[in-house]
Amino acid sequence: MDLKYLIRHSENKENSPSIFLLHGYGSNKEDLFSLEGYLPKNHTIISLEAPISLPFGGFTWFEVNQEDIINKSYYKNEDDVDKIAEVIIKNINKLSTQFELNKSDATVLGFSQGGSICWKLGLDYSENIRRILPISSYINVFDYKIDNHNNILTYTSHGLYDDIIPIDLVKETILELIESNDNITFEEFPSGHTINQENLSSIIKWIETTNL
């Protein structure tokens, strides 16, 4: 399955590093692409769009029913997450070949539902992804043991007042991950379910600090 996307090419036309953007539930490829002006000019920026359209508009990476939302059990559909993660990796590999990107320097930044997929990619596809940035997202570990995390370079952040995915739902798991992984940066911000200016500045600084 080929996903729709938006692209901003790097100033370096060949073998550039890349940042792939995964939007949240009910959003679209235009959402996170609005960040491209802040992201490094030497990176190719590609915003992917989820394949499942929603009746009220926007898209989702996998089905989430209203009961799941009310009970905050967003990511219990393990098979669906496995399938979409495989689709995303295939698209990343295909686009990296098509645009002659550096396959050793791919980054994935995801928000909310897209952020949960970042964690999945970090666990299962670390050979394809160098860095992940899951923002305001739930860690979907399923049957994994925490120590199976591949110690991939990770920046993750969450709003203290997030009423969509409460920070208490994810903080314990993140802190447990940090205990056994040196490459995880976790930050909290006085915000809700969003990326505020302070958070964005921190994201940009971390990307610059971890550039090859």
Number of structural domains? 1
| Main sheet summary | 7 strands, mixed
Beta-strand content bin: 15-25%
The dominant shape is globular
Number of strands: 9
* CATH homologous superfamily (4th level) name: Alpha/Beta hydrolase fold, catalytic domain
Q: Please work out how many helical segments DSSP would assign.
A: 6
- Strands in their spatial order, largest beta sheet: 1-3-2-6-7-8-9
CATH topology: Rossmann fold
Poorly predicted spans: none
Structural class: alpha/beta
Q: What's the rounded overall pLDDT mean? A: 88
CATH architectural arrangement: 3-Layer(aba) Sandwich
CATH C-level: Alpha Beta
Report on the structure:
The strands form 2 sheets. This protein has a 7-stranded mixed sheet, sandwiched between helices. The chain has one domain (5-209): Alpha/Beta hydrolase fold, catalytic domain (Rossmann fold), CATH 3.40.50.1820. With 212 residues, it is α/β, with parallel strands linked by helices. The mean pLDDT is 88. It contains 6 helices and 9 strands; from the N terminus they run ββαβββααβαββαβα. It is globular, with a radius of gyration of 16 Å.
Secondary-structure blueprint:
Blueprint: E1 5-8, E2 18-22, H1 29-33, E3 44-48, E4 52-53, E5 59-60, H2 66-71, H3 78-98, E6 106-111, H4 113-124, E7 131-135, E8 153-159, H5 167-180, E9 184-189, H6 197-209
Offer a concise description of the structure.
By secondary structure, this protein is an alpha/beta fold. The chain has 6 helices and 9 strands, in the order ββαβββααβαββαβα.
Features:
single chain, 212 residues, alpha/beta, Rossmann fold, 7-stranded mixed β-sheet, 6 helices, 9 strands, globular
